[in-house]
Amino acid sequence: MTLKQIERAGIEAVKMLRVTKLSVGLPFMINSNLLPPDQCYLEYPDGSIKTVTISKLDNEFKIVDELDAERINFIRNKYNLY
After folding, report:
1. Which residues in 9-40 are b (16+ Cβ under 10 Å) and which e?
2. CA 61 to each of CA 3, 27, 73: distance values in angstroms, whole numbers, following the listed order
3. Which end of the chain is more exposed for a tag (fewer CB within 10 A), N or C?
4. Minimal CA–CA distance to 43: which of 62, 21, 59?
5. Cα–Cα distance for residue pair 9/6, rounded to 1 Å
6. DSSP summary character for residue 50
7. Full-model pTM
């Protein structure tokens, strides 16, 4: 396998994982260099996306921001999440 083939296989695996998690009602984590290192996006089955951080006290996600429709579309376009 070439490096490109391995990269494509990895991208397809992540896309399949996203669909699977969302279809069973679980959120999907999107890591992004647009955010500080301690934050990520969580995409929910209802289509919403929230910026979250991990609470060091109870090891749970804490919502930092709920994205509006325009920002959700930007994130989906940037990461080809359609």
Report:
1. eeeeeeeeebeeebeeeebbebeeeebeeebb
2. 34, 11, 23
3. C
4. 21
5. 5
6. E
7. 0.86
pLDDT at position 57: 84
Q: Which of 51, 54, 49 is nearest to 38 (CA)?
A: 54
> Taking a C-beta distance cutoff of 8 angstroms, is the pair 61, 44 a contact?
no
Side chain identity, residue 73? N
Phi-psi domain of 12 (left: phi exceeds 0; alpha: psi -120 through 50; beta: other): alpha
Q: In what order do the strands lie in the sheet with 28-30?
A: 28-30, 39-43, 49-54, 61-66
> 61 has which bridge partners?
54
Q: Which pLDDT score, from 0 to 100, does residue 82 have?
A: 79
C-beta of residue 22 within 8 angstroms of C-beta of residue 28: yes
